[in-house]
Write a structure and sequence with these properties.
This protein is an alpha+beta fold. Helices cover 23% and strands 29% of the residues.
């Protein structure tokens, strides 16, 4: 009987002790958590990091229009002034707080055509700051690519600056405006990258069809390539004849400053493979000099077509392989203008001229080649027909 009475008492006591122990453990853990939070926040509520929630252009955007503005939006309002994002390559313009949580960049002129740009928003305590004191955990980068300038607009600017044998006249209703008084080439008031309404016209109607037939408005062609090379040469750019971001930006800058072609003449070299073979130099629509010449023999014929002069030497060594496999090495070859691979205009002593005798080059008497050489700056077109 006594055992039956004591067992319930012992059971209850054990339950009470465990319950008391459990309550004490929970209390201690809660106090520890509160102490940790207070230490990490300095006694204030925790502030989550600032976040970029959207941008325009978006990350990886392609073909972004030149006239676009750039915006970056955050998840909370930000301080103004605050650390401004940057664009690389650098673009002239102004950042401002457009809305409480959005920064906007307006270019002074336009975004550079074809450029691969990156927006960088600086993180950390020196970066953009939210009104709640928050910062980005780290720098945020947003890359995008601007639309390229069209071939047509490239041609318009080249014509405006005097590098083409054509003029470009904007329509009276066009934002480009009319030619400035006294300008030899028509000068668009707008130097922006967008196409302008207008028309092209040949400066000289007396150029033969062998040259004029090469022109194709709005499409790549040898005349445009040569003009790009001439522009690159005068502006310290690599002379590859390919219009890309650096050329487009230089064209826009030159147009804005009215920096026309330093050489007002347009030269063209016509090589005839009809016997007697000859070289005729044209300037500003008229033939100004002609000389007998030799083109390539059978097995090493001179290619037919039109190409721009891409490198020149007053004297150089020419070496290579003859059609029979033997090697040649000719030092001191004078007045050399390469225009297509290993084919060049140059002087070379022969007993006669007017028939195929070379290994692909266009040979002239050295004294005559000296006359031709000044007419062949980089970008000058050479037609072999």
């Amino acid at each position: 009987m006594r055992r039956i009475v004591r067992r319930p008492f012992l059971f209850v006591a054990v339950v009470l002790v465990l319950g008391a122990a459990g309550g004490a453990g929970a209390f201690v853990a809660s106090r520890h958590a509160n102490a940790t939070e207070a230490a990490s926040t300095g006694g204030s509520a925790h502030v989550p990091p600032l976040r970029v929630v959207s941008s325009s252009p978006g990350a990886g955007a392609q073909g972004v229009p030149f006239g676009s503005t750039v915006t970056v939006s955050f998840d909370v309002p930000i301080l103004d002034p605050s650390a401004q994002p940057t664009l690389n390559p650098s673009v002239t313009g102004t950042w401002s707080l457009q809305e409480v949580n959005t920064l906007q960049f307006v270019p002074s002129v336009s975004l550079p055509p074809g450029a691969s740009e990156t927006i960088t928003i600086r993180g950390g305590s020196n970066g953009v700051t939210g009104t709640n004191g928050s910062h980005l955990l780290g720098d945020v980068s947003i890359p995008f690519t601007v639309a390229p300038m069209s071939t047509l607009r490239t041609q318009e600017l080249l014509a405006e600056l005097g590098y083409l044998p054509l003029t470009f006249t904007p329509d009276s209703s066009s934002s480009a405006g009319a030619a400035a008084p006294g300008d030899e080439a028509s000068s668009a008031v707008s130097s922006g990258p967008g196409d302008q309404a207008g028309s092209f016209a040949w400066k000289w109607s007396t150029f033969p069809a062998a040259l004029t037939s090469l022109w194709n408005e709005g499409q790549p062609n040898a005349i445009t390539t040569g003009a790009v090379m001439a522009f690159e040469s005068q502006h310290g750019l690599g002379t590859d004849g390919s219009a890309g971001p650096h050329v487009w930006q230089a064209l826009l800058s030159a147009a804005a400053a009215h920096q026309n072609d330093s050489d007002p003449n347009y030269d063209w070299v016509d090589v005839s493979t009809s016997v007697p073979e000859s070289v005729t130099v044209w300037r500003n629509g008229g033939a100004v000099y002609s000389t007998p010449a030799n083109t390539g023999i059978e097995g090493a014929t001179t290619a037919l077509g039109t190409w721009p002069v891409y490198v020149r030497y007053t004297s150089t060594t020419m070496s290579g392989t003859n059609p029979d496999g033997s090697h040649y090495d000719d030092p001191g070859v004078p007045w050399v203008s390469y225009f297509h691979g290993g084919d060049a205009l140059h002087g070379f002593i022969r007993s006669s001229y007017g028939t195929p005798q070379s290994l692909g080059c266009v040979e002239m008497p050295p004294a005559n080649a000296a006359v031709v050489y000044p007419f062949t700056p980089l970008g000058t077109l050479v037609t072999v027909q």
